[in-house]
Amino acid sequence: MGEYPAFMIRELGPFSIDRVCSAVQKVRDRLFRAAAALDGAGVRYAVVGGNAVALWVSRVDDSAVRATQDVDILVRRSDFAASRAALEAAGFIYRHSSSIDMFLDGPGAKARDGVHLLYANERVRPDQTMLNPDVDESERADRFTVVALAGLVRLKLSSFRDKDRTHLRDLIGVGLLGARDVAGLDPVLAERLQGLLDTPEG
Q1: The dihedral of CA 159, 165, 170, 172: what is its sign?
Q2: Most buried of 19, 43, 83, 143 (most Cβ within 10 A)?
């Protein structure tokens, strides 16, 4: 199909579906290790972010599940020390960067190769509309605890970045979120949800 533009030229590996599957498996394993460490330490937590969206979507239609790069976990700030000790004991390496507490999966790992902590009842960014849900707003699965659907929706609508809008459309697409949910939301969040419902293709 012709040459790549100069700004795109870099060393490329071969196309490999095995590498794609391996990338998904690494995130899955990271999630299980982190959850097991926190469970073992008695830390209350909830899986949030793209993994939580995928877990909820999979309850309706596994063909609609979208892979995600990292692991986001909600904890209470008062449990940070216990969370850090548990995750470091499981082999993760703590790093604080760009106001985010994260645990990298090995010495040479990138930020996306890690576990990112979000704090319950706080904002991730100053412009976030509402506080994060509490860890009690969650449901227990077989190997981890995942944020409840209502809390996940509020968090995504409150943050409302491009990837949040994509995740919300995933929930809308499988019928987990719809017009029936607009009335129960904060007015700002309700307007955002209605906008997504009105523009399903973006």
Answers
A1: positive
A2: 83
How much of the chain is helix, strand and coil, in % rounded to 5?
Answer: 45, 15, 40
> Which residue from 139, 145, 142, 102 is spatially nearest to 124, judged by alpha carbons?
102
pTM above 0.85, yes or no: yes
| Domains of the chain, start order | 16-148 (3.30.460)
pLDDT in tens, 109-127: 888 889 999 999 999 988 8
Enter the tokens of residue 185: 């939301």
Would you state the structure tokens that stand for residue 47, as one six-digit string?
């899986």
Name residue 74's beta-bridge partners.
Answer: 46, 118
Cα distances (angstroms) measured from residue 53 to each of 29, 68, 107, 121, 171: 17, 10, 29, 20, 7
List pLDDT tens digits, range 173-185: 999 999 999 998 9
CA pseudo-torsion sign 153, 159, 160, 166: negative
Q: At what angle do helices 17-40 and 80-89 cross, to 10 degrees?
A: 130
Q: What 3-state DSSP class applies to 131?
A: coil
